[in-house]
Recover the amino acids of this structure.
């Protein structure tokens, strides 16, 4: 029995079919189980080398990829922006070609520019995994969100998923929108009109600026972090006003159905987009997302990096 | 898997022969394991899982005991990383824990090079340290590449390396039970 997977790269969820997404999620089921074993390591990628190339800072995604690679027995090298020659004027392509000359089999790239992973994927024989590119996509985050919804609710089809916050600058939102709509979920985006413009309706989702109207019908609420580092004054009113209008406070959480899931890609800003009582409450699956991220990344690394190159 | 449709084939076992072989293996398992409660029948997907299920039924008929069942994924433990051109499908492994003091019997349809059995043993040891690991197969076709032998064999079948064995089981393949030998 072999797989029908034939992609060397994972650049985004937009180009994947529903079958391919489901196949990754099923493969992740098998890898999630490895985490429950006494020895949490399998030789599936033994002898392969993975380079974590994070041009933008990240702790949790990088750590998750690193741990996923360890559990598959691959060797891992981490390259951070300050330690790389990019700061010495080397182009992205030259840096990447040097990494490939070191026989790196898999390159996990985070970059501030949308399209950087695709640029490299087209030029390198190595597998390229997008770990977040600008405001474009963050496919493994999208996949782990899908995995968590599917695990907790048993399905994705016909669920109403509400994504709240800074959609305009969010690659997490985009990957979620592509993945959720392909798998048949109904998606509503909520936030201030500056951060959730009507143009998003072209992607087959609903846009709302009034959170209280949307919450009672939600099966899943995914709260995005307010990305202070990407905000500019003209888009964003102020933290206090944002919390009042869009924050999932403990009072507002009473509007939710009892089985509605509360999700957040992290890191959470307690008291801003979500109250501590809600983040730590019974409906929260925020830490499940972290655990599932590991399984999903193992599946992606196995599928993209497992074939002889 | 190759398309075997137009190749000459020789029937080796029919449904009745498979049934008899599995019933005999079930008796041997009962004889050789004084404490059946400590035994785990762990099938290798897909057909090994079905064969394990049938063995458990025979054991239940004879010994009136519900034997513990498991599944072992070998895809994650294969030793052909870096040379394979097709990616094997991975499944979740499932074994009753803890494995200490248990006897795990690996169940597969065809016993060939021994590489699958080695990968299965590797997978089992990542769950713990069973008292004993045994191996049961419906067909042993020879050509071992590793120093491994089977404890229970339904049929010993001398083959040439280039011949192929095909096992069909009703519940998996939606075809009548049978084993065929395909010449090159």
């Amino acid at each position: 029995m072999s797989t029908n997977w034939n992609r060397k790269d994972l650049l985004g969820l937009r180009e994947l079919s529903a079958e391919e997404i489901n196949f990754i999620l099923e493969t992740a089921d098998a890898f999630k189980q490895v985490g429950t074993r006494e020895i949490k390591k399998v030789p599936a990628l033994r002898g392969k080398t993975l380079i974590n190339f994070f041009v933008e800072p990240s702790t949790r995604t990088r750590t998750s990829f690193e741990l996923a690679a360890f559990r598959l027995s691959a060797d891992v090298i981490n390259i951070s922006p300050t330690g790389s020659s990019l700061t010495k004027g080397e182009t992205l392509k030259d840096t990447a070609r040097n990494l490939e000359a070191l026989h790196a089999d898999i390159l996990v790239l985070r970059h501030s520019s949308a399209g950087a992973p695709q640029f490299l994927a087209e030029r390198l024989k190595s597998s390229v995994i997008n770990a977040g590119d600008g405001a474009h996509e963050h496919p493994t985050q999208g996949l782990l969100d899908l995995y968590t919804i599917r695990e907790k609710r048993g399905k994705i089809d016909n669920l109403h998923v509400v994504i709240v916050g800074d959609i305009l600058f969010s690659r997490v939102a985009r990957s979620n929108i592509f993945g959720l709509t392909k798998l048949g979920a109904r998606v509503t985006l909520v936030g201030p009109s500056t951060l959730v413009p009507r143009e998003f309706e072209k992607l087959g989702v609903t846009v709302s600026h009034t959170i209280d109207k949307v919450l009672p019908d939600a099966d899943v609420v995914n709260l995005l972090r307010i990305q202070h580092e990407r905000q500019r004054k003209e888009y964003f009113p102020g933290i206090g006003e944002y919390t009042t209008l869009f924050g999932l406070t403990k009072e507002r959480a009473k509007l939710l159905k009892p089985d509605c899931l509360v999700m957040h890609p992290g890191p959470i800003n307690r008291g801003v987009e979500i109250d501590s009582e809600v983040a730590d409450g019974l409906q929260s699956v925020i830490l499940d997302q972290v655990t599932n991220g590991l399984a999903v990344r193992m599946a992606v690394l196995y599928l993209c990096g497992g074939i002889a190159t | 898997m190759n398309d075997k449709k137009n190749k000459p084939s020789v029937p080796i076992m029919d449904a009745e022969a498979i049934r008899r072989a599995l019933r005999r293996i079930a008796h041997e398992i009962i004889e050789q394991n004084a404490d059946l409660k400590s035994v785990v029948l762990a099938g290798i997907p897909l057909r090994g899982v079905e064969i394990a299920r049938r063995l458990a039924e025979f054991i239940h008929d004879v010994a009136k005991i519900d034997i513990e069942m498991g599944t072992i994924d070998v895809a994650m433990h294969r030793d052909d990383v870096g040379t394979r051109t097709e990616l094997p499908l991975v499944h979740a492994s499932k074994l009753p824990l803890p494995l200490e003091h248990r006897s795990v019997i690996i169940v597969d349809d065809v016993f060939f090079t021994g590489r699958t059995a080695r990968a299965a043993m590797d997978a089992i040891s990542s769950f713990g340290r069973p008292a004993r690991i045994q191996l049961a197969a419906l067909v042993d076709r020879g050509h071992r590449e590793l120093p491994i032998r089977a404890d229970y064999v339904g049929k010993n079948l001398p083959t040439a390396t280039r011949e192929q064995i095909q096992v069909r089981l009703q519940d998996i393949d939606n075809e009548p039970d049978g084993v065929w030998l395909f010449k090159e």
User: Anything to note?
Assistant: The interface with chain A takes residues 45-46, 73, 75-79, 81-94, 122-123, 125-128 of chain B (CB under 8 Å). Strands of chain B lie at 9-14, 39-43, 68-71, 103-111, 132-140, 152-156, 164-168, 178-182. The first strand of chain B starts at residue 9 and ends at 14. The radius of gyration of chain B is 16 Å.
